[in-house]
Fold each of these.
Amino acid sequence: MIVDVKIPQLPESVPDATLLEWSKQVGDIVAQDEVLVELETDKVVLEVSAPQGGKLTEIVKQAGETAVSDEVIARLDTSAAGEAAPTPAPAPAAETSADPAADEAQLSPAVRKLVDDHQLDPASITASGPGGRLTKGDVLAHIEQSGAQSPAPTQTSTPSPPVPATAGERGERRVPMTRLRQRIAERLLQAQQTAAILTTFNEVNMQPVMDLRKRLRDDFEKTHGVRLGFMSFFAKAAVQALKAFPAVNAYIEGTDIVYHDYYDIGVAVGSPRGLVVPVVRDVDQLSFAGVEGAIAEYGQRAQAGTLGIDELTGGTFTISNGGVFGSMLSTPILNPPQSAILGMHATQMRPVVEDGEIVARPMMYLALSYDHRIIDGREAVQFLVTIKQNIEDPGRLLLGV
């Protein structure tokens, strides 16, 4: 029986997807749920798996072409499933293939990229996929267990210019933008053209939060199984400020202002494909551990390229931490249709005056970019002051004051 392989149902905000490299070719025998091809949208990379086992008889859409929801991209002959060789047991982690090139050919594009990014030996990872294939989950589990260091989130979608071979020789190359980079460019330009963006600044003394974290982080990790970082404090402080100033948690639609009565905080994360903003839902209802756990998971999945579209849409407010890259001060740009974004920066020891004395304190600059059409300057300044007060006195977060 001939079975169609179709594009999965895409959200309304994603009109189409571009096919990347096919991991199987016409005539290959595939197992059910085996990855056939990856799709790149303007938000994430998705995998298309075989709906049933069989022989790949036709590829309707080639790599580089676009397709829409439910469009047929390939066909399988399920009557040929019996031609497939018996599924071998997963090879022990210590064993290596006699033919490394053959092992490499078995990797899907996503798995190959993840292995290359983390400089891993595929033969050292236990495979659990059909036919002994290595899956993304296998690689991520191996990284977590071995504590392999994640690569720095650099922009790999636009390769660096080649180094001149000889003095005086200058090369250049033209590389098409990825769908994600095109979307980022489009949204940033949209934000600049459609919003009246202003930025207000303040500084915050991180000493109280740092002292609290130092005192309790070991107990926190033992109890909750996740590390205590700074982002949960800022997310919780943002919720307190958003409750006090609802306009910051709203957006303009036509001649109306739409207010959100919930608090879905987007956390900007660098990934090999570009900047993505996964959304932590209902932050007001989460514990500190819940926030930290969600952010940690999103960070790992952003590096692996496994975030879902629904996890990248619908935020009401965004926090961007440029401090992890060493930024001292910047003006973050809005994430449409949101009306504000909080920028965190590097913490450095600076002289401050306390009770008439000059002392050294770990200080961080904060920046709030906002749409002046909906948020007044007074509200923006007081919003940022509320963030500052909650960070400098974290007990306020527990008491809700």
Amino acid sequence: MDGHSRRTFIAQLGLALSAGPILACGDARAQRSHRAGAWPGPAEPISRASEPLPTVGDTLELTPDEWMERLTREQFRILREEGTERAGTSPLNREHRRGTFHCAGCGAPLFRSADKFDSGTGWPSFTRPIEGRIDTRIDRSFSMSRTEVHCARCGGHMGHVFRDGPPPTGRRYCINGVSLEFKPAG
């Protein structure tokens, strides 16, 4: 399968998966609350712009209830339950200003705008992360093997990385826009 076909397949898979909530992980209490409709968190995303920038190696660990209070329902589904947003829905696809993309869960800077490109998949894509800000692990769901991308600070699910990106890295970090917050350069 060539790079374009793979991107098209992944985009279509994302559309299918985002049709309903996917509860892939998280504790039972959070999943019950999610399904029941009781949501203690904010209705709209909260900007973490006023929080101090975390240093590389700093970690943030919260309980599922604390995450639920901090995140919107959709952010929780993506960041904590490893969901996928519907392709083409993120306003960050059209973000072309200079700046930095931060984790929507903890505020850690993850990607620079200089490394963003239009992959044609419907998700914000980057050629590389900021050094030390991303962790990866193998994801074998849906009968395929992919490399899953997480925020190194809070463990929030960002998306996946593929080996069909443009130079200089040949990588495509395909990231859920819901998991990111853009901060324009000074």
Amino acid sequence: MTHDHTIRMKVNGTPLEVRTRPDRTLLDLLREEIGLTGTKKGCEEGECGACTVIMDGRAVLACLTPALKADGAEITTIEGLEQDGELHPLQKAFLDEGAVQCGYCTPGMILSAKALLDVNPVPTADQIKESISGNLCRCTGYTKIVRAIQRAVEGNR
């Protein structure tokens, strides 16, 4: 028998207290208990990156992260990037460059890129490619995605 645990965390800047079972993943907690469905459920094996979120400043795979590890953490999901009705520069750049096709990988790609830009605001193309290497896209071929991230970098200069 599993018992519920109360965890406290900050999600997209909002302090939350959530009861969850110890066998839950952060992905399930975000999607099913908090209602943030922008974090996508893909392979559930840590291979596709669709579930990428930022936890305490690092890109993490929510499908592999136990929900209880989020206790005391600060989490950013794709829903948390928009501010006052304005898209984040990465979101704008993805749209402007046509780096969104089916859109399933997009939240994870953007959050992986944001985690990079938060620590390295002017990365090289190789650093950008490395930062999104854990995110699979079956539609775009990555060229437009890398260009979108570079466009966001240029906008930050």
